[in-house]
């Protein structure tokens, strides 16, 4: 887990991983790790399994251990959708954010539902591949943080993924059609915020 004391990492961590999961803290400095560990203690995680200071290249024993996912902005997403409007686009924001406006054709799946929905997203990807379409799942959110967290879960599960690492306010400026949904029905079920 890369230490991010400025963002919402603690909140998402507490909601996404099963209780008791071993956690390794990775940070640019010991101070960053200590600050993050202090925040973890506030949600009941007081003993990380391990920690390391430095950069990813310092942590890995070989280059094969370092993974990455493609990152794009909304302008690049708009260009990709122009060439293939049937791409699988998942919006990882909360229900209220989705209701206020989302990209037309996106599927809504709040980040907190990703762990239980990996099988469903794998099925979407496999169905697209079976039909000869792009099996990649593109994930967006409000600023790129939740999309990045979600993408790491998909990549770990072997699902091809691209992160839209951009502020959602730029989506309309990029030419993407934004629609409202006052009924918040996603994937056939109504979700609560």
Walk me through this protein's architecture.
The protein is α/β, with parallel strands linked by helices and 193 residues long. Helix content is 38%, strand content 17%. It has helices at 9-16, 30-42, 56-59, 74-83, 95-100, 114-130, 145-156, 170-173, and strands spanning 24-27, 50-53, 70-72, 88-91, 102-103, 107-108, 137-140, 161-164, 178-179, 185-186, 189-190. Strands 3-8-7-4-6 form a 5-stranded parallel sheet. The longest helix is centred in the middle third of the chain and has 17 residues, at 114-130. Mean pLDDT is 86; it is low at 1-6 and 184-193.
Summarize the entry for a quick read:
By secondary structure, this protein is an alpha/beta fold. The protein has helices spanning 9-16, 30-42, 56-59, 74-83, 95-100, 114-130, 145-156, 170-173, and strands at residues 24-27, 50-53, 70-72, 88-91, 102-103, 107-108, 137-140, 161-164, 178-179, 185-186, 189-190. It is globular, with a radius of gyration of 18 Å.
